[in-house]
């Protein structure tokens, strides 16, 4: 009987990362979901989850992309995030690296107060309801 190779945790996470990134199927994806747990850190990076009725996907948007947002999304907003899926090796977590210029938002039926920490250059209030709208650069 052949001996089965025993991987270290780092080797396993690296292997999974290579499999995910090597497939090419998740290099450029659009994912629709509801924003939850949105948090912007002092570094400028934004961490959040996209969820639907059956699953949750962790997401990150780095400072460079986050600066391009016209406003930060609210928890409960339905968005189409564009980016790529990869594995963060130190934690063994796969996540969507969001931040393409085409970050889109679907209008939420709920009205929410604006958080004062958000940019105020161009609020979405003037757009018609129930239409997919751009959340990033025009």
Write a structural description.
This protein has two helices and seven strands, in the order αβββαββββ. With 138 residues, it is mainly β. A five-stranded mixed barrel has the order 1-2-3-5-4. A hairpin with a 4-residue loop joins strand 2 (46-51) and strand 3 (56-61). The protein is elongated and about 60 Å long. 16% of the residues are buried.
Shape: elongated
Unreliable sequence segments: 109-118, 120-138
Q: What is the rounded Rg?
A: 18 Å
Looking across the biggest beta sheet, what order are the strands in? Answer: 1-2-3-5-4
Helical percentage = 10-25%
Brief sketch in words of this structure:
The protein has 138 residues and is mostly beta strands. It has two helices and seven strands.
Provide the descriptors you would attach to this structure in a database record.
elongated; disordered C terminus; 7 strands; mainly beta; 138 residues; 2 helices; 34% strand
What's the topology here?
Blueprint: H1 9-22, E1 29-40, E2 46-51, E3 56-61, H2 63-66, E4 78-88, E5 93-98, E6 104-106, E7 132-134
Parallel strand pairs: 3-5
Antiparallel strand pairs: 1-2, 1-4, 2-3, 4-5, 4-6, 6-7
